[in-house]
Amino acid sequence: MTTTPTPSVEQQQQSSHPVKLPLLRPTISFYCMISDGTLTDISNGLGVAAMVLIVVYHFVAVNGKRMQD
Predict the structure, then answer these.
(1) Any transmembrane segments, and where (predicted)?
(2) How far apart are CA 44 and CA 38, in angstroms?
(3) Whole domain around residue 51: which residue ranges?
(4) What's the rounded mean pLDDT across residues 8-12?
(5) More confident residue, 21 or 67
(6) How many domains is the chain built from?
(7) Does residue 23 lie in a domain region?
(8) How far is CA 15 from the centre of its chain?
(9) In terms of C-beta distances under 8 Å and separation of at least 24 residues, what long-range contacts does 46-55 make, across chains too?
(10) Does any domain span residue 12?
(11) Has residue 42 been placed in a domain?
């Protein structure tokens, strides 16, 4: 069993055929585009959550003194 020596960087740059490296890709693709419906659901959910937090904050801020007594 003989091994071929790997070419140096300079030899790789000078050769007409580039050296093909193995592609490092995950077996399961996690990179996919979000659909319009999913993006709408996420943005609506975050908007509702933000509004609920704002209402709760104002309720606590206004009634804070009454709750302490």
Answers:
(1) 42-62
(2) 10
(3) 33-69
(4) 60
(5) 67
(6) 1
(7) no
(8) 38
(9) none
(10) no
(11) yes
